[in-house]
C-alpha cells in the first residue's frame, strides 16, 4: 500500500545527496573546461590524474555506504555514543588505505604513467600537439600528481565517511548545500583566479584539489562534532511501525 508520508520522507533523505552529486559533477566539468582553455598539458595531466583517481574511488564509496548502514542501526537503537566510535574506526581505515595507496603509487608510479603513453607517436600527431619535450614535462607533472592524489583521496575518504554518518541520521540538506558552496568557493573560484587567469602551472591546480577537499572535510567534521545530526528524527509516531498482522478467528483455527 502506497504511503505518501513515508514516500516524502524517502525523498527527503535521498534527493539532497542526489543533488549534491549533481552539483559536484557540474563543478568538475567546469574545472576541466578551464584546464582545456589553458593548455594541452593541463588537460592531459588533469585527465590522467582523474583516470587514476577513479580506479581507487571504491574505498571511499564503500566506506560511506558501510558507515551509513552501521550508523543507521546504532541511531535506531539510541546508541549515539557508538557513532563516534564508528567515526574513529573509519578514520583509522582511511589512514591505513592512504598509507597503502602511497606505497603502491610510490612503487609503481612509472608503470601507471607509462600505461597512458603506450603510443607517443599518436599524441605527437594529435590535436594536442604533444612534443617529446612536452611529454617529458607531462610525466614529471604526473609524478607530482601521484603525491597530491594520495593526500586528496585520504581527505575525500574522510569526507565520504562523515557524509555517510550524517545521511544515516537524516541530516542530508547540509551536505547538499555544502557540496554546492564548497566546490564553487574552494575549488572553482581559486582555480579561476590563481590558475586560469595567470596561466599558472598544473601543479597549482592539483594543490587546489587538496585545499578543496581539506576545507570540505573540515566543514563536514564541524557539523558532525556539533551534534546537530542527533536532533534529526526520520521516523516519528507510528509511521515507521509495521502494519499489524490480522488475527485469525479462533474458531477457524480450532477447525483447522
Description:
- By secondary structure, the chain is an all-alpha fold.
- The chain has one domain.
- 80% of the residues lie in helices and 0% in strands.
- The chain is built from 9 helices and no strands.
- Helix 1 runs antiparallel to helix 2, helix 2 crosses helix 6 and helix 3 runs parallel beside helix 6.
- The longest helix is centred in the middle third of the chain and has 37 residues.
Reading the helices and strands in chain order gives HHHHHHHHH
Mean pLDDT: 85
Major sheet: size, sense and barrel closure?
A: none
Structural class: mainly alpha
Using only C-alpha atoms, the radius of gyration works out to 24 Å
Task: State the shape.
Answer: elongated
Number of strands: 0
Could you tell me the strand content as a percent range?
under 5%
Provide a count of the helices.
9
Count of the domains: 1
Question: Runs with pLDDT <50, length 5+?
Answer: 236-256
Helical amount among residues, as a percent range?
Answer: over 70%
Span between N and C termini? 30 Å
Quickly list its features.
elongated, disordered C terminus, single chain, 256 residues, mainly alpha
Report a brief summary of the structure:
With 256 residues, this protein is an all-alpha fold. The protein has helices at 4-38, 40-55, 57-76, 80-115, 120-124, 132-168, 173-196, 202-226, 250-255.
Give the helices and strands, then pairings.
Blueprint: H1 4-38, H2 40-55, H3 57-76, H4 80-115, H5 120-124, H6 132-168, H7 173-196, H8 202-226, H9 250-255
Amino acid at each position: 500500500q502506497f504511503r505518501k508520508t513515508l514516500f516524502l520522507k524517502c525523498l527527503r533523505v535521498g534527493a539532497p545527496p542526489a543533488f549534491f552529486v549533481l552539483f559536484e559533477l557540474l563543478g568538475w566539468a567546469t574545472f576541466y573546461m578551464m584546464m582545456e582553455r589553458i593548455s594541452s598539458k593541463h588537460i592531459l595531466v588533469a585527465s590522467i590524474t582523474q583516470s587514476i583517481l577513479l580506479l581507487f574511488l571504491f574505498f571511499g564509496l564503500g566506506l560511506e555506504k558501510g558507515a551509513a548502514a552501521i550508523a543507521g542501526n546504532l541511531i535506531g537503537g539510541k546508541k549515539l555514543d557508538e557513532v563516534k566510535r564508528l567515526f574513529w574506526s573509519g578514520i583509522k581505515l582511511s589512514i591505513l588505505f592512504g598509507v597503502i595507496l602511497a606505497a603502491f603509487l610510490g612503487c609503481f608510479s612509472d608503470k601507471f604513467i607509462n600505461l597512458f603513453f603506450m603510443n607517443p607517436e599518436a599524441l605527437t600527431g594529435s590535436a594536442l600537439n604533444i612534443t617529446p619535450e612536452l611529454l617529458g614535462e607531462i610525466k614529471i607533472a604526473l609524478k607530482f600528481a601521484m603525491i597530491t592524489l594520495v593526500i586528496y583521496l585520504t581527505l575525500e575518504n574522510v569526507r565520504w565517511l562523515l557524509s555517510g554518518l550524517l545521511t544515516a541520521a537524516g541530516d542530508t540538506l547540509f551536505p547538499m548545500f555544502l557540496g554546492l558552496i564548497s566546490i564553487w568557493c574552494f575549488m572553482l573560484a581559486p582555480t579561476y583566479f590563481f590558475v586560469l587567469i595567470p596561466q599558472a602551472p598544473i601543479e597549482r591546480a592539483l594543490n587546489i584539489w587538496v585545499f578543496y577537499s581539506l576545507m570540505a572535510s573540515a566543514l563536514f567534521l564541524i557539523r558532525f562534532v556539533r551534534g546537530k545530526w542527533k536532533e534529526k528524527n526520520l521516523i516519528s509516531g507510528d509511521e515507521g511501525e509495521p502494519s499489524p498482522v490480522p488475527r485469525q478467528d479462533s474458531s477457524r483455527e480450532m477447525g483447522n
